[in-house]
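Sanity check. The docking grid for iron/sulfur cluster depends on where the pocket ends up, so I'm generating a full predicted complex first rather than guessing from homology. Inputs follow.
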Amino acid sequence: MICLEPLARRQRASGRPAVARGRARLARAMLADCRLCAHECGVNRLAGERGLCHAGADAGIFSAQVEVSDELELIPTFAIALSGCDLRCDFCITGRESWNPRAGERVQPALLAARAEAALAAGARTVMILGGEPTIHLPTALEIVAGLPDGAKLVWKTNAHGSAQARALLDGLFEVWLADFKFGNDACARRLAGTPDYVGVVRENLLWADGHSELIVRHLLMPGHLDCCWKPVAGWLAENLPRVKVNLRAGFWPAWRAARHPELRGTVTARETARALEIAEGLGLNLIA
Ligand code: SF4
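Predicted complex below; grid placement will be based on this.
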C-alpha cells in the first residue's frame, strides 16, 4: 500500500499539475506489479506482461473531442477517451476500442493540453478523462492531467472498479467523479461483464469518491434487469449515499456482443423506464439529467 499526502481541496487549483506529474512517475513505476484495478493481476506491464485488461505500458486514445451527451452540468466537455478496459461488458457501446488497449493514436499530452485549452476557451465547461476505463492507464492519465490548464474543472469518468492504490494516486486531482454502478449483484456482473466481486468493489469506490470529490453515479438501465440490478443499486444508494446525484439512463442500445444474452437483444421498454423512475422517486433519490 502506498501512502500519499492528501491534497487539500483548496490547494487543488494551484498545485495540481506538479502533484499529477509526481504521481504519474509513481504510477508508471507501479506498472511493474500492476494492481491499479481491483483485479490486482500483479503482472509486470513494463516488462511486457499482460493482465486481464491486456494493456501494456503505453496508452492510446480513440477519441478526444468536445461532447454534449453527458450530464447537463458537465457539458460541453472536452472528453479524452483512453483505449482499453478491465471489464468485459458484452453490451459495451465502444466495445472494439474498449476491449483493445492498443486502439487509437498514441497519447501526446502536450497536444491534448493545447486542444483542451482551446476547447475551454471556446466554452467547454469541463475536461473529462474516460475510457474504456482510464484507471488501467493511470500513468498516462496523470501525465495528461499534469499538462492540463491549472484551474480547469476535471471529471474522472470511471467504472468504479479501481483499487485502493489507484484511488490514492487520484486523490484531490479531479473535481468530479462520474462513476458507473452497472450491476446490482455479482451474478449479473460475472455473466455480462466477466467480473467477480463487482458489487463490493464498486460500493467501496463510491463511498471513497463521495468523501473526496463531488460524485455523480450513473446507472444504465438494462432490459430485464430492473429487479436484479436497478432495484438493489437504488436501494443501496438511498441508504448509503442519499444525497448523491444519480443519473438513471434509459438509452440502452444492444451494441457489441449484447445479442449473446437473450434479454439484451432489445432496448428498455417505456414501462420499465417508468417503473425504474417510480423506484427512484419512492426512495427519494437525487435524480439529475
Ligand atoms: S489494470 Fe487491472 S486488469 Fe490491467 S493489469 Fe492492472 S490489475 Fe490487471
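Relevant for the grid: Residues 12-30 form the longest helix (19 residues).
Also worth noting: The domain at 12-287 is CATH 3.20.20.70 (TIM Barrel).
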